[in-house]
Amino acid sequence: MTSGGGKGEKILVSVRVRPRNDKEKTRNDICDWECVNNTTIICNNNLPERSLFPSTYTFDKVFGFDSPTKQVYEDGAKEVALCVLEGINSSIFAYGQTSSGKTYTMSGITKFAMNDIFCYIQKHKEREFTLKFSAIEIYNEAVRDLLSGDNNQLRLLDDPERGTVVEKLIEETLRDRTHLEELLSICETQRKIGETSLNETSSRSHQILRLTIESSRREFSPEGSSTLAASVCFVDLAGSERASQTLSAGARLKEGCHINRSLLTLGTVIRKLSKGRNGGHIPYRDSKLTRILQNSLGGNARTAIICTMSPARSHVEQSRNTLLFATCAKEVTTNAQVNLVVSEKALVKQLQQELARMENELKNIGSSSSSSAGSDFYLLLKQKEEVISQMEEQMKELKWQRDVAQSRVETLLKATAEERSSRMDEHSMLSSVDFDADLRRRSYDSIDIGEPKKMNFELFENSEEDDFLVEDNIIPQFSRYNLYNGWEEIVQKVEGACMESEGEQSRVEAETVVESHDDIVDKKAVSEVLSPRKVETISSPEYYMDTEKAENEEVEEISTPEEDENAEPETYELTFKKSDFEMRPSVEVQETQSVKEEEHEKKEERKTSSSKQAEQHSNKEEDSQPEEQSEETVKVDLIPVGAKLNEEKCDKKLPQDADKDYRSESSVTDAVENNTTYEALKEKVKEMQRKIEYLMSMHTSEQQQQLSPSFRRDYKSPEFFTTKRSRSCRENLLCVRSPLWFDNLETSNNLNASPGRHMNKTCSISFDSGSSMGSTPTDAESLKDCDPETGNSFQEFVAGLQEMARQHSLDSTPEIDYGIEIKPESPGNQVSDPHNRNEETTNDQFEREQAHDLVENAVPKETDSTETYPEKTQVATGQYSSKFSDFERQQRQIIELWAVCSVPLVHRTYFFLLFKGYKR
Ligand SMILES: Nc1ncnc2c1ncn2[C@@H]1O[C@H](COP(=O)(O)OP(=O)(O)OP(=O)(O)O)[C@@H](O)[C@H]1O
User: Fold this and answer.
1) Is the ipTM of this complex over 0.90?
2) Is the pLDDT confidence value at 812 over 60?
3) At which of 341, 363, 392 does a domain end?
4) Residues 469, 595: one domain?
């Protein structure tokens, strides 16, 4: 086998010109050839017949007459010959005519090569060399083994790897140099034996000495042991002279033909090989010589041709032909390769190693590809699993949120239902709700109170409460012209069912509340808070201005002065304070559980029902005295929660009110005598007073911060009607009242001296009656003195309120604060004679009479009041076109506020009692 890529290499062609032998010298055969240098040889024959031939020849090496064989070997054969040691086939040819010195040169080169090879082997002990020598002779196209010692012709065999081989050729393994010399000697002898018989001086056969060298490393090499196997052939060709020149015939001719055949074929092959691919078919098989030397001629071998020639002119033609052959030969390119012979054991090892390497590569490829693909798949799977996990978490979260939301919705629905149910119960117990509904449905279509109010009531009309109340057979529907009677009818109906179980229980609760209050309230603090100094500061105009500025101008009035000018004559301005609706200073505030509040409110409702029943009796008397109802306009806000009304105060009433107070007192007294429920009402009033006292103390600090400016502002805001309607009005009545009440107490001392003070005060009249009665209760202790149980009778309390209202009306105060501010801006408060009223009075007449009373009491009596209050002059001189009295309007508006603020039943009842009481 060959390894390594060999490149094309020209046949090394050398020319050796032997010296003239003795014979040639004897014949004086002129030497025409001259070796001008070691590569060029020229012919000095100037004969005209030689003129067509070139005279100068250049070859790889040109050896002259005196060139020793050693030099010829060294320069023209050694390199090629020693290639065999490297595993490259090589061939050394000697070509020339007979007696030109071929054998002489070739025998010398072979010896030198063999010598060098042996020297090399000796130098390279690490390698093991195997030298096999064989020698054949080709005579007349017959191959003969020179080492066999016989004349048997050998056949040529075609081997796929080795090419043409000589069958049964003896390859003698050289033991040493001597052995080689013996063999060479044998070969020479055998060749001479044959040639002697033919030509003593000339060889007629081709001799091929083959030395095959196999070399391998002696030590183990991981690369694997390899054997270099190459052959070096030393070919001594027969003389190339032409047969004609031999002058032979018969057997000689035949010999010559066979010699020439091999030589002619060799020439043809060389010529063709010199032409390269253009040379066409190479006729190796045309002669045994060319078949045996096929690899050496243009194949896997390095070749060196040494052309020998005689310098004698007599051989000039033969010398020229030799040079022509040499010229062609130097054009032939061979492709020599290293012949690596691998032993079976080494080959097995090498194959095993190669197999293992390839298996590893396959495993690596598979593992790498599978690992990369597997890793990608694993990562993708992991990512998807993470996404799925996240989605599952999100689903859980969403489900949880959904459940929570559903739970909240259910809770809200349940709470709403409970609240609605409680309200329904409350409204069913309190006919004032229906009163409101009736008022909204029938009264407001004729009363222009501004857009916000309309919207508010539209909302009420669509509420389910109204539907429920309408369907409730217990609650009768009232006429807007006789609200009083409707109220009292309800009281009568409800009171019958609730009156019996209400009395003692409510009384006990009230006492409990008072006791608790005594333990908690810091009386000193309450007294300090309620001092006149602080009240004056708070209620001053500067305070209102500052506060309103600080509140970012959130004030929205229901009816502005400009609007009032174009509004209906009976338009009133209602002013509330937001904080009053936000607070709920009742006893029930301490009870955190809504259930307790509901129970308490229900109790109060039952109480109210009983109160209504009691009022129904008194109302009958009021109907007989309608002229006093006009003064209820002032009474609205004068609910004397905690007010101290005693006989001493009553004695200090103004003279013009004395008569009315007396009549009222007597009327109440008659009611007590004629109706057993009057005592129950008294108890309720007492209970309310106690509660109010307690709440006043509890919420003193808050009251300081929540005074009438914000109250007025918030209530004037349209949004308030839609957002704050559910708040209890108790806080309006209780928490606000206290400080302003003391403020009024303070201002009441100068009531008559400063008639125009209300221009600068918005909360002026509510409890003026307290001061007008002579006493100025400025602390909680004084409030306790107002207990009708210990000091004043209820008749006296009501009489005090009447006196307060009377005083207020005389003072012509245009504003009523404490939750309701009434400005009788109607220009036509024309009055009718109040003394013409009686029980058979029609509604219109009743209203006119009420209006008359109101105007009569409201219009200042003093002559300079017109200048002070120009709007009141307008009231006194204007046209009173409305068929409703101011009192009823005020009453309606208060009732409106009940609905808007969800005023508890107890306070509504309280208002109602005050209306009635004032009438009395
Ligand atoms: N270069 C040389 N120097 C001295 N003598 C030489 C040289 N060449 C050849 N001879 C002599 O020439 C004679 C013939 O030489 P040689 O036998 O080698 O010729 P040849 O070409 O081999 O002929 P053949 O073809 O018939 O065998 C020999 O006696 C040899 O000694």
Assistant:
1) yes
2) no
3) 341
4) yes
What is the domain range of residue 740? Answer: 430-560+572-919
Q: Is the CB of 517 under 6 A from ligand 1?
A: no
Work out the end-to-end distance of the chain between its first and last CA atoms, rounded to an integer number of angstroms: 146
Residues 220 and 328 in one domain: yes
pTM: 0.44
Q: Is the CB of 64 under 6 A from ligand 1?
A: no
Test site for ligand 1: of 16, 17, 18, most ligand atoms within 8 A of the Cβ? 18
- Return the CATH number at 220: 3.40.850.10
203 lines ligand 1 (CB under 6 A): yes
Nearest to 815 by CA among 864, 733, 757: 757
Region class of 642: left (phi > 0), else alpha (psi between -120 and 50), else beta? left
Atom index in ligand 1 nearest the CA of residue 236 equals: 22
Ligand 1 and 299: CB distance under 6 A: no
The dihedral through the CA atoms of 176, 180, 181, 186 has a sign that is: positive
Which residue from 447, 443, 442, 440 is spatially nearest to 569, judged by alpha carbons? 447
* 355, part of any domain: no
**Ligand 1 probe mutation, 21, 242, 255, 306, most atoms within 8 A of CB:** 21
CA distance 322 to 809: 166
List pLDDT tens digits, range 609-667.
Answer: 555 555 555 444 444 444 444 433 333 333 333 334 344 444 444 444 444 444 444 44
Burial of 61 (0-12, 13-18, 19+ CB in 10 A): buried
Last residue of a domain, one of 341, 374, 400: 341
Percent of the chain with pLDDT over 90: 5
Residue 539 lies in a domain: yes
**Could you give the number of structural domains in the chain?**
2
Detail the DSSP E strand segments found in 46-162.
56-58, 61-63, 90-96, 127-139, 142-145, 153-154, 156-159
In this structure, is residue 144 part of a structural domain?
yes
Higher pLDDT, 86 or 658: 86
792-830 b/e with 16+ CB inside 10 Å = b?
Answer: bbbbbbbbbbbbbbbbbbbbbbbbbbbbbbbbbbbbbbb
Closest CA to 440 of 413, 478, 399, 414: 478
Burial of 116 (0-12, 13-18, 19+ CB in 10 A): middle
